[in-house]
Amino acid sequence: MSKFWSPFVRDLEPYVPGEQPKMARLVKLNTNEHPLGPSAKVIEAIRAAADERLRLYPDPDALELKDAIATYYRVKTDQVFVGNGSDEVLAHIFFGLFKQDRPLLFPDITYSFYKVYCGLYDIDYRPVPLDDDLAIDPADYSAPNGGIIFPNPNAPTGRLLPLDAIETVLAANPDSVVVVDEAYVDFGGDTAIALVDRYPNLLVTQTLSKSRALAGVRIGFAVGDAALIEGLERIKNSFNSYPLDRLAIAAGKAAFEDDDWFQRGRELVIEERETLRHALEGLGFQVLPSAANFLFCRHPDRAGADLAAALREQGIIVRHFGKPERIRDHLRITVGRPDQNRELVQALTELI
Ligand code: PMP
């Protein structure tokens, strides 16, 4: 690292994304991508947008996409913010909403980018331990705080909070913003977007990377009270006025308009998840109930690191975090295509 960087940058601990290996034949179950390719209508829309208009800047407000999201969720367009993946939306949120003299609260086992943004933006935070079943207890989120964030379902556990539990957190914290990161909500949860008109302190983020199979395009969004959204727009316009390019805007709009593809994709993932869960339990794994497109599990007789390494030797990649100690032996396994899931189970049957 060059000496020209400040000590602050030299000490930053960046997020380490899941591996994106180049090997040709791989069963890639490590980064929670959708097992299917996106809707054919999305690909058509990208093709149709790829013409001479690419010399022009895109709509800085991505209005066509915001309108499609607003229509889908029955909210107003000024309640929607869009960004280049939900990681970028979260970056704007952390930058502007959580810089307070009280700590941000989030679960001790959760999406590791939260801690990274706290480092980048110098935000004080306090991890809140999950309960004995690795679930979020809403009663634990009542201490004085400068904001609250958690994924629902949580990652990497897959465990879901029902909307009434989210309301408990919202009602207990009228003076702080509660961000519900719904990256995986379409695989089994109810969206808290239904609550935004009643709670001006609620911001819900979602992504098209998972349930709409568009991780490679980078589209995320937030829905909340228009006054909260206004601040995100201000930050965006002070940073990059055009976060979504023309192809992404076209793709996102088409994705929300093809509900048939979306529903079929969700159903496949949910069905496969339950089949895989039963198969893993049959091999002696302890598997947490999951409302996401992945399973979080451990085998009582086998170290997680060893299992992940042995699978890797056979070209099957799953995610092993190893830390903190409580999840040392857990694996997070993305639900793949039926043939990939069968290959995983076959490999595990031989290993155990
Ligand atoms: N939130 C959670 C909980 C996630 O797991 C992810 C995916 N790594 C994201 C947000 C970010 O997704 P994206 O930037 O692809 O929208």
From TrEMBL:
Pathway(s) of this molecule: Amino-acid biosynthesis; L-histidine biosynthesis; L-histidine from 5-phospho-alpha-D-ribose 1-diphosphate: step 7/9
Gene3D superfamilies: Aspartate Aminotransferase, domain 1 (3.90.1150.10), Type I PLP-dependent aspartate aminotransferase-like (Major domain) (3.40.640.10)
Cofactor or coenzyme needed: pyridoxal 5'-phosphate
Modification N6-(pyridoxal phosphate)lysine, positions: K210
One record GO biological process: L-histidine biosynthetic process
E.C. numbers: 2.6.1.9
A GO term for molecular function: pyridoxal phosphate binding
Highest taxon of the lineage: Bacteria
UniProt keyword list: Amino-acid biosynthesis, Aminotransferase, Histidine biosynthesis, Pyridoxal phosphate, Transferase
Aminotransferase class I/classII large domain ranges (all copies): 26-348
Catalytic activity: L-histidinol phosphate + 2-oxoglutarate = 3-(imidazol-4-yl)-2-oxopropyl phosphate + L-glutamate
InterPro entries: Aminotrans_II_pyridoxalP_BS, Aminotransferase_I/II_large, HisP_aminotrans, HistidinolP_aminotransfase, PyrdxlP-dep_Trfase, PyrdxlP-dep_Trfase_major, PyrdxlP-dep_Trfase_small
NCBIfam families associated with the record: hisC
Subunit relationships: Homodimer.
Family to which this protein belongs: Belongs to the class-II pyridoxal-phosphate-dependent aminotransferase family. Histidinol-phosphate aminotransferase subfamily.
The name this protein goes by in its record: Histidinol-phosphate aminotransferase
Organism: Alloalcanivorax marinus
